[in-house]
C-alpha cells in the first residue's frame, strides 16, 4: 500500500509514517528457511490508548487520564473526548453483541450486493451473492470461455454481468474438467480479496467524488437509526444526522489503511460515524499535517468513533489488525456465531475486521 521503504531513512519519513511503520505487522524472520510457522514480531503497545480500560476505571471511581474528558448523552455509557483533538469522540462498546452480529451478516451478505459497488467491479463487474457462492465453494469463470454445452445442465450459473463477456458462478467440478482453458477464480478467494463496498450514494474513487447518478441501494433503516443515535454526541445543537452514504472496509491479516483525510463531504461539522466489527485494531489519529505526531488507540468490535469539525481535518489510518488468538478479542462473537448456520461468518471474522463509515454527504 505504501510502496517500498528501501533506501528511506526514518528521518526522511513523516511523523505519521513513522507511527504506521512502528505498529505495522512484521514477521520474525528467525525461521525464514525452516518450515516453522512465522511469528509476528513483538510491538511496543505501551503508548496505545485503551478506552476499554479507561471506561472500566471511569465506571469504578470516575477517574480519567490526563487529556481525556467524558460527556453524557442518550447512550448507555459515556462518550470520551481528547482535549487536543476537538471534534473527536470515542464510544467504547457502543454496539450491543446483537447489533454487531447483525452488522457483520449485512456487511458480508447484503452490502456488497449490486447495484452497490465493490473493489471487484473494475475487473469482474457487479458480483451477485458472493458470500453465498463462497459458502457453496463455487467458482467464478469468464462467461465467454465456457459455452452452455460445457456446463452441467443441472447447474444454473449466476450470471453477473449483463453482457456476453461477463462472468458467472459455476460448480467447482465444472471448472476442474476444463482446467487450463478458462479464466477462473474461487469465490472464497474473491471474498478474501473484498476490500470495500459502498452503500447509499456511491463514491467514485477515480474522481474522488460522489456520483448521484449511479444506481444504489438505500442504507438499511436499522443502520440509519443506529448511526443517528451514535452521531448525536457530535452533532450541532438542534440538528439531526442524515445518513446518505457509507463505505464498508474489509481488513485481513496484514492489511492497512494508510493515513488520509475524509474530505469529500460538503459539511464537515457533521460527523463521520465509524463502527468497528471483528478483530481488534490500532487506529492512528494525527493532526492537520502528516508531520504531527499521531495518537494511537485500540479499536475493538462494537466500538464507535465520531469525527466532526476540526477532527475532520486530521489525518488518520489503521496500521494494524490483530488476528492471533491472544489479541483478536472476539470470544463473544465466537460464542454468538457458534451455530452451524453461522460457521462461515465465524470462519471469516476470526481473521478479519470490518469497518462501516457512515456519512452525511450534503
TrEMBL record:
<dbReference type="GO" id="GO:0035515">
    <property type="term" value="F:oxidative RNA demethylase activity"/>
</dbReference>
<keyword id="KW-0223">Dioxygenase</keyword>
<comment type="similarity">
    <text>Belongs to the alkB family.</text>
</comment>
<dbReference type="GO" id="GO:0005737">
    <property type="term" value="C:cytoplasm"/>
</dbReference>
<keyword id="KW-0479">Metal-binding</keyword>
<dbReference type="GO" id="GO:0008198">
    <property type="term" value="F:ferrous iron binding"/>
</dbReference>
<feature type="domain" description="Fe2OG dioxygenase">
    <location>
        <begin position="242"/>
        <end position="362"/>
    </location>
</feature>
<feature type="binding site">
    <location>
        <position position="260"/>
    </location>
    <ligand>
        <name>Fe cation</name>
    </ligand>
</feature>
<dbReference type="InterPro" id="IPR027450">
    <property type="entry name" value="AlkB-like"/>
</dbReference>
<dbReference type="InterPro" id="IPR004574">
    <property type="entry name" value="Alkb"/>
</dbReference>
<dbReference type="GO" id="GO:0035516">
    <property type="term" value="F:broad specificity oxidative DNA demethylase activity"/>
</dbReference>
<feature type="binding site">
    <location>
        <position position="262"/>
    </location>
    <ligand>
        <name>Fe cation</name>
    </ligand>
</feature>
<dbReference type="GO" id="GO:0035513">
    <property type="term" value="P:oxidative RNA demethylation"/>
</dbReference>
<protein>
    <submittedName>
        <fullName>Alpha-ketoglutarate-dependent dioxygenase alkB</fullName>
    </submittedName>
</protein>
<dbReference type="InterPro" id="IPR037151">
    <property type="entry name" value="AlkB-like_sf"/>
</dbReference>
<keyword id="KW-0408">Iron</keyword>
<keyword id="KW-0560">Oxidoreductase</keyword>
<feature type="binding site">
    <location>
        <position position="316"/>
    </location>
    <ligand>
        <name>Fe cation</name>
    </ligand>
</feature>
<dbReference type="Pfam" id="PF13532">
    <property type="entry name" value="2OG-FeII_Oxy_2"/>
</dbReference>
<dbReference type="InterPro" id="IPR005123">
    <property type="entry name" value="Oxoglu/Fe-dep_dioxygenase_dom"/>
</dbReference>
Amino acid at each position: 500500500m505504501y510502496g517500498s521503504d528501501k533506501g528511506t531513512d526514518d528521518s526522511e519519513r513523516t511523523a505519521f509514517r513513522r507511527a504506521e511503520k512502528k505498529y505495522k505487522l512484521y514477521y520474525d524472520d528467525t525461521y525464514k528457511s525452516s518450515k516453522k510457522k512465522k511469528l509476528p514480531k513483538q510491538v511496543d503497545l505501551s503508548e496505545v490508548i485503551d478506552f476499554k480500560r479507561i471506561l472500566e476505571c471511569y465506571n469504578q471511581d470516575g477517574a480519567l487520564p490526563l487529556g481525556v474528558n467524558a460527556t453524557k448523552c442518550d447512550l448507555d455509557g459515556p462518550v470520551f473526548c481528547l482535549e487536543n483533538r476537538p471534534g473527536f469522540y470515542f464510544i467504547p462498546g457502543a454496539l450491543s453483541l446483537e447489533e454487531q452480529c447483525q452488522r457483520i451478516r449485512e456487511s458480508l451478505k447484503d452490502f456488497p450486493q449490486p447495484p452497490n459497488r465493490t473493489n471487484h467491479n473494475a475487473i469482474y463487474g457487479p458480483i451477485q451473492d458472493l458470500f453465498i457462492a463462497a459458502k457453496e465453494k463455487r467458482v467464478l469463470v469468464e462467461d465467454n470461455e465456457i459455452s452452455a454445452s460445457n456446463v452441467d445442465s443441472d447447474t444454473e450459473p449466476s450470471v453477473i454481468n449483463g453482457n456476453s463477456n461477463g462472468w458467472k458462478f459455476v460448480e467447482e467440478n465444472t471448472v476442474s474438467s476444463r482446467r487450463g482453458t478458462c479464466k477462473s477464480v474461487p469465490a472464497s478467494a474473491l471474498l478474501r480479496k473484498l476490500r470495500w463496498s459502498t452503500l447509499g450514494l456511491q463514491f467514485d474513487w477515480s474522481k474522488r467524488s460522489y456520483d448521484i447518478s449511479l444506481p444504489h441501494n438505500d442504507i438499511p433503516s436499522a443502520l440509519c437509526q443506529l448511526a443517528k443515535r451514535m452521531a448525536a454526541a457530535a452533532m450541532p445543537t438542534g440538528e439531526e444526522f442524515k445518513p446518505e452514504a457509507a463505505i464498508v472496509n474489509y481488513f485481513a491479516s496484514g492489511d492497512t489503511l494508510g493515513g488520509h483525510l475524509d474530505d469529500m463531504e460538503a459539511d464537515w461539522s457533521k460527523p463521520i460515524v465509524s463502527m468497528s466489527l471483528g478483530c481488534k485494531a490500532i487506529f492512528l489519529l494525527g493532526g492537520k499535517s502528516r508531520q504531527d505526531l499521531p495518537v494511537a488507540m485500540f479499536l475493538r468490535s462494537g466500538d464507535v468513533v465520531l469525527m466532526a469539525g476540526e477532527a475532520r481535518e486530521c489525518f488518520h489510518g489503521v496500521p494494524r489488525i490483530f488476528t492471533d488468538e491472544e489479541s483478536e478479542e472476539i470470544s463473544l462473537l465466537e460464542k454468538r456465531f457458534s451455530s452451524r448456520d453461522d460457521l462461515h461468518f465465524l470462519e471469516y471474522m476470526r481473521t478479519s475486521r470490518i469497518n462501516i463509515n457512515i456519512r452525511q454527504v450534503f
